[in-house]
Write a structure and sequence with these properties.
Elements: E1 3-11, H1 16-30, E2 36-38, E3 42-44, E4 55-64, H2 68-81, E5 96-102, E6 107-109, E7 112-114, H3 123-132, H4 144-147, H5 150-155, E8 157-158
Antiparallel strand pairs: 1-4, 1-5, 2-4, 3-4, 3-8, 6-7
Family: Belongs to the HPPK family.
GO molecular function, one term: 2-amino-4-hydroxy-6-hydroxymethyldihydropteridine diphosphokinase activity
Pathway: Cofactor biosynthesis; tetrahydrofolate biosynthesis; 2-amino-4-hydroxy-6-hydroxymethyl-7,8-dihydropteridine diphosphate from 7,8-dihydroneopterin triphosphate: step 4/4
Amino acid sequence: MSTTVYVALGANLNEPVQQIQDAVLALKKIALDAIVNVSPLYRSVPMGDVEQPDYVNGVARFNTDLAPIALLDALQAIENTQGRVREIRWGPRTLDLDILLYGTQIIDEPRLSVPHYGMKQRSFVLIPLADINQQLILPCSTELKSLITREMRAELIQI
């Protein structure tokens, strides 16, 4: 059975735009029909207190027949292939791939929470998500466009 998923894309080390482009190519290998829709990319200020370069962020949408944990494993394999090291929470990274939405499912497992726990407050997620599907309604019945503020739009720079 096919499920539409939305995945956040982020990188701030080792040529971040190229890291995301390489990740999209890898996503095409796990997407049904090798079709991946990708938002424009944005530059954003890092979260947390760790000194690091700005991020490049976007969102990808594709259909998959992978179960949620299998998709998580596939995304983490892509991150690892591209040199992801998990040392510091909210630290710099070559690539970060997070499952934002898995169809309309709400998932709460030790390794995976969907919808992604912080997506409603993060401009670098909401804006690219709206670029792909402005009419999206989240599993909690919230309209995506109702979450986006003028201030959020001002935080990001499209690249």
